[in-house]
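Q: Sequence in, structure out?
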Amino acid sequence: MPRTSAGLLMYRFRNGAPEILLVHPGGPFWRNKDEGAWSIPKGEPAEGEDLLDVARREFREELGSDAADGPFRPLSPVKQKGGKVVHAWSCEGDLDTTQFRSSTFSIEWPPRSGRRMEVPEIDRAGFFDLPTARLKINPAQAAFLDELEAQIGARRPAQA
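A: Exactly. Output:
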């Protein structure tokens, strides 16, 4: 069975155009990677755990803040290059990305060195316009951006 993750695709409107919240994974492996390395905040469920609950929990763990109260609109799951299936929900919201507080995890670094270090799950967060988000996001997750555009197209506020 493929690994599964669940996450939230938060967006906001600035000057009539959508901006997408993306996070950059922490740790030494990702330090110098940018284009194609960013993601929606997401994580893996425990056995039998509701995927929307997982998405909301992971948002809180990775950013130190709750997402908006909804509505949460489901997006079609995507399969990433490594085989992981990612389920996502879009939601409109806002947060100060300079104030996020990510949880941490322990890794062995360098690999097979026997040394362990604590690293943040994410080391950066930001809102990006759609063209920039398309460059930064994991290529498989770009499908979420296409579907979000279709969801919000009719709801797009008038230009300011």
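The first helix runs from residue 51 to 63.
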